[in-house]
Amino acid sequence: MKLKNYFKKRDLKKPGEPKPVLKKSKTKNQIFVIHKHYASHLHYDLRLEINGVLKSWAVPKQPPRTKSIKRLAIQVEDHPLEYAKFQGEIPEGMYGAGKVKIWDSGTYELLEKTKDKIEIKLNGKKLKGKYVLIRTNYGSKPKKSWLFFKV
Protein backbone atom coordinates (compact mmCIF):
# COMPACT_ATOMS: atom_id res chain seq x y z
CA MET A 1 0.00 0.00 0.00
CA LYS A 2 1.51 3.30 -1.14
CA LEU A 3 0.24 5.32 1.84
CA LYS A 4 0.99 2.77 4.59
CA ASN A 5 3.25 5.16 6.57
CA TYR A 6 0.76 8.02 6.15
CA PHE A 7 -2.02 5.95 7.73
CA LYS A 8 0.30 4.63 10.47
CA LYS A 9 1.04 8.14 11.77
CA ARG A 10 -2.50 9.52 11.76
CA ASP A 11 -5.91 8.98 13.29
CA LEU A 12 -8.16 10.00 10.40
CA LYS A 13 -11.29 9.57 12.52
CA LYS A 14 -10.37 12.86 14.20
CA PRO A 15 -10.86 16.18 12.40
CA GLY A 16 -7.90 17.88 10.77
CA GLU A 17 -6.21 16.44 7.72
CA PRO A 18 -8.04 15.38 4.55
CA LYS A 19 -9.18 11.79 4.27
CA PRO A 20 -7.70 9.97 1.25
CA VAL A 21 -10.09 8.83 -1.45
CA LEU A 22 -7.28 6.92 -3.20
CA LYS A 23 -8.19 7.77 -6.76
CA LYS A 24 -6.05 9.02 -9.60
CA SER A 25 -5.71 12.70 -10.34
CA LYS A 26 -8.11 14.01 -12.97
CA THR A 27 -5.67 16.59 -14.24
CA LYS A 28 -3.60 16.00 -17.34
CA ASN A 29 -0.54 17.66 -15.81
CA GLN A 30 1.21 16.48 -12.69
CA ILE A 31 0.71 18.78 -9.74
CA PHE A 32 3.00 20.09 -7.03
CA VAL A 33 2.32 21.98 -3.85
CA ILE A 34 4.50 23.55 -1.20
CA HIS A 35 2.92 23.88 2.22
CA LYS A 36 4.19 26.34 4.81
CA HIS A 37 3.86 24.27 7.99
CA TYR A 38 3.90 25.93 11.40
CA ALA A 39 4.55 22.74 13.42
CA SER A 40 7.06 22.33 16.25
CA HIS A 41 9.44 24.13 13.86
CA LEU A 42 8.45 26.25 10.88
CA HIS A 43 9.28 24.39 7.67
CA TYR A 44 8.03 23.91 4.13
CA ASP A 45 6.66 20.66 2.71
CA LEU A 46 7.45 20.05 -0.96
CA ARG A 47 5.00 17.61 -2.55
CA LEU A 48 5.17 16.19 -6.09
CA GLU A 49 2.48 14.04 -7.69
CA ILE A 50 4.23 10.81 -8.68
CA ASN A 51 2.46 7.49 -9.33
CA GLY A 52 -0.85 8.54 -7.79
CA VAL A 53 0.50 9.97 -4.51
CA LEU A 54 2.27 13.11 -3.36
CA LYS A 55 5.94 12.26 -2.77
CA SER A 56 6.93 14.58 0.07
CA TRP A 57 10.00 16.31 1.49
CA ALA A 58 10.31 18.57 4.54
CA VAL A 59 12.42 21.62 3.69
CA PRO A 60 13.61 23.47 6.84
CA LYS A 61 14.03 26.84 5.09
CA GLN A 62 12.06 28.71 2.42
CA PRO A 63 12.42 26.98 -0.97
CA PRO A 64 14.99 28.57 -3.30
CA ARG A 65 13.92 31.09 -5.92
CA THR A 66 17.41 31.72 -7.32
CA LYS A 67 20.13 29.45 -8.66
CA SER A 68 22.63 30.25 -5.91
CA ILE A 69 20.67 28.68 -3.03
CA LYS A 70 20.60 24.99 -2.07
CA ARG A 71 18.20 23.65 0.54
CA LEU A 72 18.18 20.48 2.59
CA ALA A 73 15.07 18.38 1.90
CA ILE A 74 14.26 15.39 4.11
CA GLN A 75 12.03 12.80 2.44
CA VAL A 76 8.96 11.98 4.52
CA GLU A 77 5.99 9.68 4.01
CA ASP A 78 3.90 9.90 0.85
CA HIS A 79 0.65 11.86 1.15
CA PRO A 80 -2.67 11.36 -0.66
CA LEU A 81 -3.47 13.61 -3.64
CA GLU A 82 -6.22 15.30 -1.58
CA TYR A 83 -3.46 16.89 0.50
CA ALA A 84 -2.61 19.19 -2.43
CA LYS A 85 -5.57 21.44 -1.55
CA PHE A 86 -5.29 21.11 2.22
CA GLN A 87 -4.96 24.23 4.36
CA GLY A 88 -5.93 24.37 7.98
CA GLU A 89 -5.01 23.42 11.50
CA ILE A 90 -3.83 19.96 12.51
CA PRO A 91 -5.00 19.67 16.14
CA GLU A 92 -2.59 19.60 19.09
CA GLY A 93 -1.62 16.05 20.02
CA MET A 94 -1.84 14.79 16.44
CA TYR A 95 1.13 14.01 14.20
CA GLY A 96 2.27 17.24 12.50
CA ALA A 97 0.15 19.45 14.77
CA GLY A 98 0.07 23.08 13.69
CA LYS A 99 -1.10 25.44 10.97
CA VAL A 100 -0.69 24.43 7.32
CA LYS A 101 -0.94 26.97 4.47
CA ILE A 102 -0.35 26.59 0.76
CA TRP A 103 2.79 28.62 0.00
CA ASP A 104 2.92 27.74 -3.71
CA SER A 105 1.26 25.31 -6.10
CA GLY A 106 0.95 24.56 -9.77
CA THR A 107 1.92 21.94 -12.30
CA TYR A 108 5.27 20.47 -13.16
CA GLU A 109 6.98 18.51 -15.88
CA LEU A 110 9.16 15.55 -14.94
CA LEU A 111 12.40 15.91 -16.90
CA GLU A 112 14.44 13.07 -15.34
CA LYS A 113 13.92 10.60 -12.51
CA THR A 114 16.40 8.11 -11.14
CA LYS A 115 16.82 6.57 -7.70
CA ASP A 116 19.01 9.48 -6.59
CA LYS A 117 17.91 12.40 -8.78
CA ILE A 118 14.64 14.07 -9.74
CA GLU A 119 14.77 16.93 -12.25
CA ILE A 120 11.57 18.91 -12.77
CA LYS A 121 10.30 22.07 -14.40
CA LEU A 122 7.96 23.89 -12.01
CA ASN A 123 5.15 26.15 -13.16
CA GLY A 124 3.95 27.70 -9.92
CA LYS A 125 3.03 31.15 -8.74
CA LYS A 126 6.33 31.63 -6.87
CA LEU A 127 8.60 28.90 -8.19
CA LYS A 128 9.15 28.69 -11.94
CA GLY A 129 11.80 26.92 -13.96
CA LYS A 130 14.05 23.90 -13.59
CA TYR A 131 14.69 22.42 -10.16
CA VAL A 132 16.59 19.37 -9.00
CA LEU A 133 16.36 17.06 -6.00
CA ILE A 134 19.57 15.07 -5.45
CA ARG A 135 19.85 12.39 -2.78
CA THR A 136 22.86 12.82 -0.49
CA ASN A 137 24.92 10.19 1.30
CA TYR A 138 24.02 11.58 4.72
CA GLY A 139 21.49 10.29 7.21
CA SER A 140 20.26 6.89 8.20
CA LYS A 141 19.24 4.08 5.89
CA PRO A 142 17.25 4.42 3.79
CA LYS A 143 18.92 7.65 2.74
CA LYS A 144 16.29 10.39 3.21
CA SER A 145 18.44 13.52 2.85
CA TRP A 146 18.24 15.36 -0.45
CA LEU A 147 19.38 18.73 -1.78
CA PHE A 148 16.74 20.89 -3.48
CA PHE A 149 17.87 23.69 -5.78
CA LYS A 150 17.14 25.68 -8.92
CA VAL A 151 19.26 25.09 -12.04
Key features?
151 residues, 8-stranded antiparallel beta barrel, 1 helix, 3% helix
Task: Summarize the structure in short.
This protein has 151 residues and is mainly beta. It contains 1 helix and 9 strands; from the N terminus they run αβββββββββ. A hairpin with a 3-residue loop joins strand 6 and strand 7.
Give the neighbour order of strands across the main sheet.
1-2-3-4-9-8-7-6
Q: Report helical residue fraction.
A: under 10%
Give the strand content.
over 45%
Count of alpha and pi helical runs: 1
Largest sheet entry: 8 strands, antiparallel, barrel
Overall geometry: globular
**Poorly predicted ranges (pLDDT <50, ≥5 residues)?**
none
Radius of gyration: 15 Å
How many discrete domains?
1
Distance from first to last alpha carbon: 34 Å
User: Whole-number average pLDDT?
Assistant: 87
Structural class: mainly beta
